[in-house]
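[job 4471] stage=fold_predict status=RUNNING
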Amino acid sequence: MEKRILYFDCFSGISGDMTIGALIDLGIDQNEFIGRMEKLKLDEFSLEIKKGNKKGITGTDFTVHLKSSEHKHEIQTEHEHPHDYEHEHEHSHEHEPVHIHETEEHHHHKHEHARNLKDIHQIINQSDLSEFVKSTSKKIFRIVAEAESKIHGKPIDEVHFHEIGAVDSIVDIIGTAICIEMLHVDEIQSSALNLGSGFVHCEHGIFPVPAPATLEILNNVPVYSRNAQKELTTPTGAAIIKALSSEFGTLPEFTIEKIGYGLGKRDLETPNVLRAIIGKKKELQSFMMLETNIDNMNPEIYSYLFPKLLDNNALDVFVTPITMKKNRPANKLSVLCKEENVGQIEEIIFTETPTLGIRKYKVEREELERKSEKVKTSFGEISVKQAYRNGELIKLAPEYEECRQIAEKTGSPLINIYNEAISEAKRKFSANK
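[job 4471] inference complete, writing structure tokens
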């Protein structure tokens, strides 16, 4: 089995717009993405998706333009404007953004309404988005809400998100969830996050980078600060990666399939991009092995026990001769099964054998890709099993029971039937290459 892993390489931090840019750059159909975004039923924005370049790296630049009847301006997304900052915390809409030079957060002008978590959930629930997108978006928003609630000492329902509730932030979070759904990955991992450094001005005064909300969100997540005297990881980006990533660490061992780059808006000394990588990793199947030592059972019972176990979801059954205490000869009964069938197998072993206990432990099994196809021989058609590794045929095995039945019916030696089936299979399958 192969697992598709999406890995975020956050060497220049992470923000909402960079995340969507990187995911779209992996090859997402832009028209389909925009079509799914329209299911949000929020006619307050338009989207701009274009190619760009940062320090020689070409990637995708994602921008949200906010429609306004009073202000004919464009609301720019995270990492976009190098002079404006408004931190993600509760405050009234009368406050204007503070102008500084150190941050990478959302740029917002005066908004008509602040939104709380209930308002955002209502927008999501009234949309035609899929259940996956709805639940993923709510999870990300709640992470931000919990952080803001703790920072400001207010119940979560009383926290208003002037910034996170803004339309462009809603687009960033829901757009990310839509992209993840479209990519069909099995697992998401991330590198440690570069937070940046310095100080920022916000409504409550001068705060250090990382911003309090960002730091609270990234509790128990590996982070560092390197290179830029700027804010590199925003609260929205922090919440997205905290919600999505199951593991933080170095690039996993996998075969690279696609690479995408999401562009930040700021020009830094190093490439201001978020790199997203999709790779395939071969995953070993996990099973349970059940074992028990038996020295006091009539060996004839094994001929009844084996088929009963195999008929009840055992994948393999075998015995190994062993010597127990007082030099008693015995057998170790071993049964391989899926984890969900352990109880069923245990019941059979306890009721059909004299054992008083069973050992069990997880094992991994790597399997070859297998097929079965009939070949024509002078004895008639015979099924032949084929085994492949990395697409290459490496084993052939005629179906024993079919060969045996033909031998008994015709009187021909079993070995002759078996060998002719293999020869015909080699000829047929090599010709199909």
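[job 4471] summary: The chain has three domains: 2-282, 290-365, 369-431.
[job 4471] exit 0
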